[in-house]
Amino acid sequence: MPNYDYDLFTLGAGSGGVRASRVAAGYGARVAIAEERDLGGTCVNVGCIPKKLLVYASHYSQDFSDAVAGYGWTVGETNFDWKTLISNKDREIERLNGIYAGLLDSAGVERFQGRAVVVDPHTIEVSGRRVTAEHILIAVGGWPVLPEIPGIEHAMTSNEAFHLEEMPQRVIVVGGGYIAVEFAGIFQGLGSQVTQLYRGPLFLRGFDDDVRNTLAQEIRNRGIDLRFDTNVARIERSVSGLSARLEDGSVLEADAILFATGRSPLTAGLGLQEVGVELDEGGAVIVDEYSRTSLPSIWAIGDVTDRIQLTPVAIHEGMCLAATLFDGRPTKPNHDDVASAVFSQPTVACVGLTETQARSRFDQVEIYRSTFRPLKNTLIGDDERTMMKIVVDSVTDRVLGCHMVGPEAGEIIQGLAVAIKCGATKAQFDATIGIHPTAAEEFVTMREPVS
């Protein structure tokens, strides 16, 4: 048999690559991992973690206002310092980078700092050094892409937004996905004047339509200038900052323009196509149900495969891969009923099928929906509404999906995701006694379907 340097060599030390490598090493495999940037990948460095920290920061302006308006608090003069927030965020990310290094080291995974490329089905080159492995794992993730329009060099992506020297007072956010929605809420909550543009008729494509419409109304009520069927044609420097000329000829002035209009797999220059690994039109690695590529010795997980681009999914795929290769348990990743959240303001979360998806797959579907003003808002005069929705197969009574717009939606839907995964029925939801007074109890007290 061939004598390889490693049993597994992983390209990319993001969430999926690190988990696959650690678990594989735990099964006794000889493992190495290469990363050209920072350990933890997108999620830790320019994604989930720093973004959630900025979301927390952006909530305080509303919290201060609510405390004064309805709950008897006297709040003195408040000031926000962007540099302090970014400095504290950077310190936390640095701490997490160290934790990832420690996890890999304690598992016995050898770390390579540098860009790795695939030379042949069993050979990798890192910083001029060539090593061999029985199995190669591609887990390099994705990267933001910018449209080719005049002046795009003046715009930024979410990557740069985490490292701005100063907080812009006027921000244009271009895009209709969760990243655009979240950054629009972050900047608005921190005090910026925000305009969000999306080229389509309604943002958050793929989410339930009631969720999309509810969130659009609520974020407009918070003061974000949300415009659909609108796009930027060109960007120019102006006396006061930046000018965005829209396709309808109108002009918007801003201090910063953030494009969150898509991400692409980081496969360019890895040598994959040269050795015979098949990629799709967008550059994503094509894999089978076990995450194997067109070459038997090369595998891929996470965002680079463009399946479901979520950190927990990449981690799940990594654990399945390690079990398949090194624990004698061929394991397919399960991508059904994956819960997700958008940390917009208010938050969105969902699990299972949307109403549109359910109606296309099932003959008889019932919809339960409730909108209400949260108890907290009754003393402050805030008209923000929470929306909850349950999608049910009326033939089997099985709950197909749960959707929510409102405070703590992610925390609430996480619990319901367990029920959906277990095949819970609407009758079992109804038989569950709610916790009162909470918003979450509404999911077990909706009795009448909507027409």
Structure overview:
By secondary structure, the protein is an alpha/beta fold. It folds into three domains: 6-60 and 77-143 and 264-326, FAD/NAD(P)-binding domain (3-Layer(bba) Sandwich), CATH 3.50.50.60; 152-261, 3-Layer(bba) Sandwich (FAD/NAD(P)-binding domain), CATH 3.50.50.60; 340-444, FAD/NAD-linked reductase, C-terminal dimerisation domain (Enolase-like, domain 1, 2-Layer Sandwich). Helix content is 31%, strand content 24%. It has helices at 15-26, 41-46, 48-70, 82-107, 158-161, 178-189, 209-221, 272-275, 311-326, 355-361, 409-421, 426-431; strands at residues 6-11, 31-35, 110-113, 116-120, 123-126, 129-138, 142-144, 170-174, 193-197, 225-227, 232-238, 241-246, 251-254, 256-259, 263-265, 298-300, 340-342, 348-352, 365-372, 386-393, 399-405. A hairpin with a 4-residue loop joins strand 12 and strand 13 (251-254). The chain is globular. 42% of the residues are buried. The mean pLDDT is 97.
Which structural class best describes the helix and strand composition?
A: alpha/beta
The count of β-strands is 21
State the low-pLDDT regions, or none.
none
Overall mean pLDDT score?
Answer: 97
Q: Gap between N and C termini, in Å?
A: 66 Å
CATH superfamily of the largest domain: FAD/NAD(P)-binding domain
Count of separate structural domains = 3
Shape: globular
CATH class of the largest domain: Alpha Beta
User: How large, in whole angstroms, is the Cα Rg?
Assistant: 24 Å
Report the CATH architecture of the largest domain.
3-Layer(bba) Sandwich
By DSSP (H or I, 4+ residues per run), the number of helices equals 12
